[in-house]
Design brief:
heterodimer; A: mainly alpha; MetI-like fold; 19 helices; B: about 260 residues; alpha/beta; 4-stranded antiparallel sheet; about 35% helix; about 25% strand; globular
Chain lengths: ~425, ~260
Amino acid sequence: MTDREQSTGIAVDSAEVKHARKRYRAERRFRMYGVAAIAAAAGMLALLVISIVATGWTAFYQHSIALDVTFEAKVIDPKGGRDPSVLARADYRKLARASLRKLFPDVKKRGDKRKLYGLLSIGVDQQLAELVAADPSLIGQTRRVEIYASDDVDSFLKGFIDREAPESDRRIKDKEIAWLDKLETDGAITSHLNLRFWTKGDSREPELAGFWGAMVGSFFTLLVTLALSFPVGVLAATYLEEFAPKNRWTDIIEVNINNLAAVPSIVFGLLGLAVFLNFFGLPRSAPLVGGMVLALMTLPTIIIASRSALKAVPPSIREAAFGVGASELQVVTHHVVPLALPGILTGAIIGMARALGETAPLLMIGMVAFIVDIPGSVTDPATVMPVQIYLWADSPERAFVARTSAGVMALLGFLMLMNALAVILRKRFERRW
Amino acid sequence: MLDSETNSATIADPKVVCRDVSVSYSGKQALFDIDLDIGSHQVTSLIGPSGCGKSTFLRCMNRMNDVIDGCVVTGSISVDGVEILDDEIDAVQLRRRVGMVFQKPNPFPKSIYDNIAYGPRIHGLVRGKDELDEVVQTSLERAGLWEEVKDRLLQPGTGLSGGQQQRLCIARAIAVRPDVILMDEPCSALDPIATARVEELIDELKRSYSIVIVTHSMQQAARVSQRTAFFHLGIVVEVGETEQIFTNPRDERTQGYITGRYG
């Protein structure tokens, strides 16, 4: 009976039981450390996301001022020829100013007038020109048009400028506040989704600046990167893993590929500047060169990921293929590479995601230029998402702060999309042997 | 190396003739001057303790050792009178003539149909889909698997049971119409029932093919083979009719191994 008690550990106060309790305590402590570490990481991530969303969400809507604009024929098209080039060059600002003066007839002083006109975005002329270009029959009529408010007005309306602060500390003065209050009571101030952000290129004026140019630039850049680094990387990995003899030379190559993966990215930018721009004379600020530089940077990542994916294909599959008389190339192309493909693709996507977020090397090759137009090909001047964020973060206007965070959200969205794709590919094509 | 009078390493009408075969891996010698004949339309089993070189010897006969870095094979192996260690002989062509079945069932992660069809396809042995269908069916029939899988030919081969997978691998090997089939412990990963089925199959197949089987099970060697060679420390200690080896071994070491004193 005593034997059994001892062996099943029923005795409560034996040394054995105390020892077991100690072990359980140690285990619980270890688990707590793990949970704490994960909670800390999750907390920091949440902090990051919350702070970005909190500052950035206001960039997704925007205020406009609705004005009754009279499209006077003698201002827009004095000769009456309706020539599109004449229509495009007319002084539309004058029309908008006239309607503002009509609303506030008692503003007489020159300085006050300038302030009054400053409520509207500088882009007003373009906005009206686009309306007339789309519908020339507007000329001679009066229409209610929603005109973008200037960035300061927009910030004030979003509550970023405190009206109780001393006037000298405010970018919106007492007079302007009075005008805006009147417009507000008239129901002339409207807020709407900021579609420009998703459809236009960069601008000096925050209310006109869009992220689409940078997104297209990133797309072209990554296209070049993928087209260069994926085939080269996979071929290099396949050759090194499956065909190359294992000797000193391949060892040296392997060590150097691993070293390349650790080279700071700005060094690749300098290389691109020296070789692609100065020696080969390729266009500056172009996604072509940006993509080539990022391809150099991504290659080692793809090679290393592909090699480990190829290594993970069990030797029994190779033996089976050799056993029925497949040649070395057939073994690789029919069996090993297809089986390693999910791993190779995962590596490639992770490499691409890294390239998508890369800024430093692109600064070196001039992709940091101020570019308004949406790039149409890989040789057009362009910028990319992280560089656009960098440019906006560097701008002094209050309204760019929100746009910077909005850009970060867009970039993070794309990164998450790419990483999710990598996970899905891995799950989808995972095979058991 | 061997005294052919007492050991009968040579036989009349051999399929494969091996003389002075030595193998070394990166300078370390694993096989020493092996002389052995493989008879046609019979099963030859290679037995011996782990690491004695029987698998290495088996892999010489279809030059599977070629793909291992640092492996050097010397001596002479001829199949139907053709020297196969000659550099001019294409290993790919040789492996069509000398098929192989491995220790662990290793079907390709493809459909059952594609597993069988792969070999005939890459060797260009068939013309058209009908002919390929026929090869797949006859191969599966000969491997005794047709009835079990005929309704799910397009399902993955890896979804079959272990014994079925091994018979699939045998069907894959015979689909390219080889002369010799090498089997490297084909039943070591199978349960006794699946083993019995594979053994029956081997007995069937010996009518059409010459079979060499490496096995750790002496009962299996006794059941399926007509000739047996006992390997030990890289040499052939004794070779002869299976019955003679198991009932009346001439060498003390063979005696010790088959009675379980070492191995």
